[in-house]
Amino acid sequence: MIILGLDPSLAATGWGVIRSSGSQLSYVASGTIKPPARGEMPARLSALFAAVSNVIAAQRPQAAACEEVFSNKNPQSTLKLGQARGAVLAAVGAAGLACAEYAPRLVKKALVGGGAAEKRQVHAMVERLLPGAAPGTLDASDALAVAICHANIAASQRLVMHA
Known about the structure:
alpha/beta; Nucleotidyltransferase, domain 5; 5-stranded mixed beta sheet; 5 helices; 5 strands; globular; Crossover junction endodeoxyribonuclease RuvC; DNA repair
């Protein structure tokens, strides 16, 4: 199964694609989408929607997973993150993909063993779990981490269903 992981942000949305075959995971591609930093919010969100749609068309994932919104101290930042996440989820939905959603702490715990792991720890574990991975940015490695988390949870659910 080809899985697209997404780490939404209005500044830099990370995306990562992995292949999951049984318990084997392999790196396919990753990148970072940087919508225009200035301009009206509808245009910025539209650019994010279009870029995620292009990634989906190019990579042809069979499943998607997205990081959930976390609360910031600044309510405006949380609102903007939610809007970016909405644009990302709309692109996934427009492509006809289901999208699992995971809390950031769960993703970190699934990869590193602790929910308060630093981004650099997540990045290092992604590189260890996906030999040859070249995430480039912490946003891209976070997206790959979301995809890995989804692959592992989906595999566990399949085992339980067949038991």
